[in-house]
Amino acid sequence: MPRLSNMAVRDIETVIHPYTNLARHRETGPLILNEGRGIYLYDDTGKRYIEGLAGLWCTSLGYGNEELVEAAAQSMRKLSYTSVFSGKSHDAAIELSEKLKEIAPCPASKVLFGGSGSEANDMQIKLTWYMNNAKGRPKKKKIISRQRAYHGVTIASASLTGLPWVHSDFDLPIANIIHTSCPHYYRFAEAGESDEQFAERMAQNLDELIQKEGPDTVAAFIAEPIMGAGGVIIPPESYFPKINEVLAKYDVRIIGDEVICGFGRTGNWFGTTTMGFKPTSISMAKAITSAYFPMGAITIEEELYQAMLDESRKIGTFGHGFTYTAHPVGCAVALKTIEIYERDKTVEHVRKVAPTFEKRIGQFADHPLVGEVRAKGLIGAIELVADKKTKRPFDPKKGVGAIAADILQENGLIVRPMGDSIAFCPPLIIREDEINEMFDIVGKGLRILEERVLKENLRN
Q: I want to staple 114 with a disulfide (CB 3.0 to 4.6 A). Which of 61, 106, 119, 201 is the partner?
């Protein structure tokens, strides 16, 4: 085992790392990253890495963007902070709300800000309940999410998340959160079932769940256009149109979680557009500021706004908000980020380079360790399997996905394993030559991984 640096030891004794095996971390220590430029990060020894996951699906404009730095600095000099409680406001909050209403993929009456995607989805739950109370429907409170979905880690948003390790021993999910089927055709299609038949069955499962729970108790449905942390799951093309038909029958509020897919990731401004998903409201975060400042937001449809007005008349106030709601620095950075997307035609750039991304990741489909390759725009995943013919996964205890990610990191590429699916989500500014550099490393890494699988008999 390599000797840990002084800084690594200090980290172990002071920092709690999310989504980390804390016991193993005491032995291996951290990767300390101290500098970023473009799509690259540099560790404390000066080693360079391609950031293959845009941080956590978020640094869309890459690292060291001086325009965003200056936007933050100017805002700090002019108005370092003010709240928007009690009717106060500032120019950046007004302008950003107007811009988000303009580009949103669904009709938006207003915008409500928070500090993260978790907070955004937490607010979606609260306001769905709030609206139904205002409308005299106190039983209409259940929120339907999906198995393997990821919507955050607050108590409420973690309940929406459909991953067992987010629930285990946290006493989650809370009441009124239920989950329907995951639309992963590769893993869950029945023998001989076409994409279309699979999508129809997923929609039927949702319909049956609503009927079982009682349509008068089901308030909302939430979905990512493409599932991120669940493994970059891309549903069949007809999935969301069929889902929308089911939801329309039961007066269900439809929430599009655009925290990962929003702001160009899939080749459109929003992933709901790409996937044919028609939400009532969307949640946003991450790329809204290219992760240069923590920010989340949701759109408020007119029906919800009218209910909020009714409650304010009854109660005397809207009893919700955070200290950092519509933080002026965050709003300024978000405005500059969106300005850059529009000026530099970032969405068009994604469409231009996506074929190279999809072609290069697709070349690994024939590799003996690869069960499925998934990609849309500049987001994708490689799913590793023990048996390609039968789709048999590796024993989770072998940690093959984590081994693969470690190998890639050793060779200069940072990615994230979700089980045995390796996710790719580079900054949107990535060039074609950089895409090729990234997947050249993947090719080398898979060769090393295959040798290790054989040597250590990891298939058995």
A: 119
Residue 322: half-sphere exposure toward Cβ, Cα within 13 Å:
17
List of residues 6+ apart from 247 with CB closer than 8 A: 206, 221, 254
User: What's the whole-number mean pLDDT along residues 354-364?
Assistant: 98
Instruction: Decide if 452 contacts 374 (C-beta within 8 A).
Output: no
DSSP 82-96: ---GGG---HHHHHH
Burial class (CB in 10 A: 0-12, 13-18, 19+), 44: middle
Which amino acid does the sequence have at 409? Q
Counting every residue, how long is the chain?
460
- Give the pTM: 0.96
C-beta separation of 148 from 230 below 8 A: yes
- Distances in Å between the Cα of 407 and the Cα atoms of 2, 60, 349, 411 are 16, 25, 30, 6
pLDDT in tens, 29-50: 999 999 999 999 999 999 999 9
Please, is 155 exposed, middle or buried when counting C-beta atoms within 10 Å of its C-beta (0-12, 13-18, 19+)?
middle
8 A C-beta contact, residue 64 and residue 37? yes
